[in-house]
UniProtKB/TrEMBL annotation:
It comes from the Bacteria. Belongs to the SfsA family. Residues 12-77 form the SfsA N-terminal OB domain. Coiled coil: none annotated. GO terms for molecular function: DNA binding. This is Sugar fermentation stimulation protein homolog. NCBIfam families: sfsA. It comes from Butyrivibrio hungatei DSM 14810. Residues 80-224 form the Sugar fermentation stimulation protein C-terminal domain. The gene is sfsA.
């Protein structure tokens, strides 16, 4: 995934979860933050951030804040990026015959529904085709502590709900997974943030015990791009 028109800036403050005050070439601007999470460990006054210029020139906030520098590395905090890079990855790998984003299941919309067709031979000896069905929920991870990624950085009822939907889907014969897109380099594992969201952690461990696969997507991160480089299944 490649951004257009990236500008380097200095972070000043974040009055609310939607906007931030930054400095670009000595001028203070109000920009949109493409992440409603806390990001308090990342958005520290004086840190370097990266902005993408909005395509709509009449928008009140002329830029979107999409990445931040911390400890010598760039961390992408764009909450829309994980689904985009996972879609790119799934289509590029060619593992599935069908990839459908935003799939309605139960009372939720799961991020991806996939199908794999496989040949089978029935009792009549006539070749037939069967379909394996997959559901994948995607989560972006930006909270890193001592070399480990943690999710979420703020309580998320929606996140726990999706995990429970996946657990239910296993019982109905689906192959299911929750995929964590690690939006910074040097991290290879994500754990549930039990302190911040014990309900999500409970749903995570219940899902894993029920057979929901845990996937970690490692990424190459620059100021103007985010690409998956490796898939680790657990």
């Amino acid at each position: 995934m490649k951004y257009k028109n990236i500008v380097k800036a200095k972070f000043i403050s974040r009055p609310n979860r939607f906007i931030a005050n930054v400095e670009v070439d000595g001028n203070e601007l109000v920009v949109h933050v493409k992440n409603t999470g806390r990001c308090k460990e990342l958005l520290i006054p004086g840190c370097t951030v990266y902005l993408e210029k909005a395509e709509n020139s009449e928008r009140k906030t002329p830029y979107d804040l999409v990445a931040v520098e911390k400890d010598g590395r760039i961390i992408n905090i764009d909450s829309q990026a994980p689904n985009k890079v996972v879609k790119e990855w799934l289509l590029c790998q060619g593992e599935y015959d069908k990839v459908q984003p935003e799939y309605k299941f139960g009372n939720s919309r799961i991020d991806f529904y996939m199908e794999k067709r496989r040949a089978s031979v029935k009792q009549s000896k006539k070749a037939d085709e069967e379909v394996d069905c997959y559901l994948m929920e995607v989560k972006g991870c930006t909270l890193f502590i001592d070399g480990i990624g943690y999710f979420p950085d703020a309580p998320t009822e929606r996140g726990a709900k999706h995990l429970r939907e996946l657990t239910d889907a296993v019982k109905k014969g689906y192959n299911t997974s929750v995929a964590f897109v690690i939006q910074g380099e040097g991290i290879t594992e994500v754990r549930p943030n039990e302190v911040t969201d014990p309900d999500f952690a409970k749903a995570f461990y219940e899902a894993k015990a029920a057979g929901v696969e845990i996937v970690f997507y490692l990424c190459k991160v620059t100021d103007d791009s985010l690409y998956i480089t490796q898939e680790i299944r657990s």
